Structure formats: C-alpha cells, structure tokens
Amino acid sequence: MAATPMDSPNSNPPSPHPIHPASPIPLDSPLRTYSKRNLPSTLSSTYPHGLLSGHPRTASQQAAFDAQKREIINSMTAEQIDKRYGEMTEKVKGLLEEEERKGREVDEKIEALKMERDVERRVWERVKGKKVGG
C-alpha cells in the first residue's frame, strides 16, 4: 500500500479554516457573539470579521476582502464610506424585513390550512358516523 501525504510525518497540518457546511449557523446560536455595525443583533457572526452565515472567511475570501477594502479606502473619503455603509445596511434591513413579512404570510397560510383541515376532518367524521349508524 502506498503512503499518502497524511501518513508522512512531514505532512502539512490541516487548514485553520474549516470547510463550511451547506447550511449557515442558526441565527439563534449562542456562538454568534460578534455583531455587525448598524445591523440587528440577529445578524451577528461567530468571528470578529466573519460572514453573516456565521462562518469565518477562508484565506482566499479574506484576501479578496482585504483587496476590496484597500481599494475602497484609497478611492473614497471617510464620509463617502460611512454613507455607502449606511445605504447598504438599510438595504440589508429592508431585505430582512421583507423576508420576515413573507415568513409571517407563510405562517398565516399554514394556520388557515390547518383550520381548513380540521373542519374537513370533523365533517368526514360526521359523514362516516352517519354511514355506520344509518
């Protein structure tokens, strides 16, 4: 059997950045302790500069983030950055409110369907009772 790179004593240690699971960390997770400026506390991250999904950035994501940050800092004044950040946080808040509204609508539809099912079940029980007794 051939030795794999992991079998050799000089192999590189695993990356410090874990592979992200398919789903984000739940918003109510106690791991989310780092809040984002001007955003609701429900959108906290598990890392100081982590993603809103709750996961840390990979090395390539961090490099891209740093490059974009340098470009912004070099091309905009502090006031422009604050204004743009405010616009983006308002956009995120608006999207969050829209998703919450949609969630409430879905919950209302589910409740209406449950009530409808309950009525249908009671009618079915009556019809079934009449057939047996009739």
> Compute the gyration radius: what is it?
26 Å
Number of strands: 0
Question: What class would the helix/strand composition place it in?
Answer: mainly alpha
H and E order: HH
* Total number of helices: 2
Gap from first CA to last CA:
78 Å
Query: Roughly what percent helix?
Result: 40-55%
Low-confidence spans: pLDDT under 50, at least 5 residues?
A: 1-20
Q: Summarize model confidence as the mean pLDDT.
A: 75
* Shape label: elongated
Strand composition percent: under 5%
> Main beta sheet, described?
none
Structural summary, described in words:
The protein is elongated. It is mainly α and 134 residues long. It has 2 helices and no strands. The model is unreliable at 1-20 (pLDDT under 50).
List the helices and strands and how they pair.
Blueprint (H helix, E strand, L loop, with lengths): L58 H17 L2 H56 L1
Q: Brief overview, please?
A:
This protein is 54% helix and 0% strand. The chain is mainly alpha-helical and 134 residues long.
Keywords:
single chain; 134 residues; mainly alpha; 2 helices; disordered N terminus
